[in-house]
## 1
Amino acid sequence: FILTQPHSVSESPGKTVTISCTRSSGRIATNYVQWYQQRPGSSPAAVIYEDNRRPSGVPDRFSGSIDGSSNSASLTISGLRAEDEADYYCQSYDSSSHVVFGGGTKLTVL
Amino acid sequence: QLVESGGGLVQPGGSLRLSCAASGVTFRGFEMNWVRQAPGKGLEWLSYVTSSGTTKNYADSLKDRFTISRDNAKMSLHLQMNSLRVEDTAVYYCVAGGITHFDVWGQGTMVTVSS
């Protein structure tokens, strides 16, 4: 299966933005979804794992959810800050434990 | 902390062995992965090994060209890459964690395949 993300999103500081990740086949709820943030020039870092869990140190402005009706996962960032400007990748895996990444979404904080 | 090494310039068809040294983590307790990122492109998972090293998994696209291994006594992870192609040019990341949480990422090592 493939995970499809919007190429880019943009929003103003203080606002809320949602990034979607749609699974092409198989149920989105079958396997956990993770989200990674990659700031320019840096390595990726997890912001959400197992659909909606936040790693230690990640602010609660970041949240994850799953929607079976659209077969998609979403990353929501509230109270946008300039430091949130980054590329965001969703990730899941198949029944053979092969990992799949989405193509990435570039978030611009206007 | 994870620190990769071994990257560099290699000709098409050549081989390279990447290494990842761990410190400050209980290395033997972590599942480990290699993930790469071609210039200006997204993330691509390559391979996974369990904490004991007994189970390994690879992306289908690698077609048996890459081999993952680990040495828990030396707290190190390796990726042997053979028959390298131009399209293997990328930053290669060592990543600690299972497939539901890539917890710790190295800074990456650049591999350039070019004649």
Note: Chain B is about 0% helix and 50% strand.
## 2
Amino acid sequence: KNQVEQSPQSLIILEGKNCTLQCNYTVSPFSNLRWYKQDTGRGPVSLTIMTFSENTKSNGRYTATLDADTKQSSLHITASQLSDSASYICVVSVKGGYNKLIFGAGTRLAVHP
Amino acid sequence: DVKVTQSSRYLVKRTGEKVFLECVQDMDHENMFWYRQDPGLGLRLIYFSYDVKMKEKGDIPEGYSVSREKKERFSLILESASTNQTSMYLCASSFGGRGREQYFGPGTRLTVT
């Protein structure tokens, strides 16, 4: 069964600190993996996309890693800001057919001053 | 900039009512999707459409139907709303092809009483 699991479910950090969110997946065949950010009351917005051959990709203070062998990904946030408070969703795309996505339940991050 | 809009941000309906949720995208995307999002669960696909007048069932189509009469517009219909359909509904669109990014609307929070 195609699944995406994220940890932790929720996280509280102080402004300026770093944090790492984890994603494990059992999706086959694998096409790509995205991290989405979802602010409260809004739709998800893509932060990064990683294909099978990519190990790391950065988008400003966000750095995503992918280990295709162990089927794990992480999202590292550097020097957190209050605006980073949101849910972060790991999404894996299934190869073939229509554009099917498998969503994790998300990690809810709260950045406190 | 891709824009996906949804007709209502908040909606309150009574059990048994027929409910229409509208979604419009302005990027000439072939694919459109309807998801529901519930706490602790990943987004779940209700229906999708890969062309005008075409529709395919997603993972949880029961109790829902859809309509796509124009390329830019995708409607979700709850024929007879029930309390277990209280949820956040998200529309998304993407170009055709595998692994393409899906762009999400802001969501409609539907409460059925």
Note: The first strand of chain B starts at residue 4 and ends at 6.
